[in-house]
Structure prediction request, 316 residues.
Amino acid sequence: MAECIPTFVNWENVKKFTTCLSYFYVTTLRIFGSLYVTSNMHFQEIVDLSIMLDEMLVSDDQQIILMGRKMREKFNKYWGDPLKMNNLIFFAHVFDPSSKMKHLLFALKALFGPEEGLKLFDTVNDKLTILFVEYEKAYVHGGSSAYVSLSQSSEAVSVQTPILPPPAKRHMSLMKAKFDEQNKGSDSGSRKSELELYPSEATVENDDNFNILKWWKLNSGRFPILSRMARDILVVPISTVASESAFSTSGRVLDCFRSSLTPRLVEALVCTQDWLRPEACPLVIEECLDELEPFEQGYVLKLTCIYYLICNSFYI
Prediction:
């Protein structure tokens, strides 16, 4: 029994590896979360893991170096080739107001080296520009169609309302007309698109209370096209945990005793279970009893009426 007791050296090794592996444990919990992680966190966690592995390789302890080499081989198998990485990972990192383009360039150089990182950054920038142009075309087309429907509805309303004389229009300023004519060429060159204006602004300070989806919602007026892109890109799941947990939950809901549930009802049960389990908002049933009692009384009354009608139909 005395031989099984850990020695001082064993405890020192455990302490050493615990300090090293605790970072990977926290990263695993963050990446495989299914209720709060948006896709902008994916690339940041990948780069942080790479930096952690580099620090392990230059450690003074040989055991940590040996473990770091094995972990680096596994890491390079999945993230060592930039051509195999999905560009949406980089796009999501750009749409993080606390990171943007400069942070992406620094991270790519740290992950793949100065030359490969700069080459990959140019590729990502070009593809992001192409995607922005496609969204811009779709947004302009959608805006024009909405304008037509609005004008048509206003014409329909004007038929029923009396026509009033239009108010007197303000004449155009001669000074502004000459100024616009003189500076027409210079103004067109100085205008920036949303894709150029967004990275040029200062980054947002990221703290625990920062909500990236709320930030884009509040700034959708300044960046209407980029906000639509962020809405579609940031919701991309970074792991399969959410879908796998949904399938396993549906398997527990639709068991052999409740096999006649419709797919729509199973979906409603699974979604309701997911909504009732948020960490920040615990469910308090006592506060809802006063509101549920009237509904319950009405439900019992309806069941009583139905039962009464069914019984009378049998006698008839």
The mean pLDDT is 74. Residues 248 and 254 are 10 Å apart (CA to CA). The two ends are 84 Å apart (CA to CA). DSSP finds 14 helices and no strands in the chain.
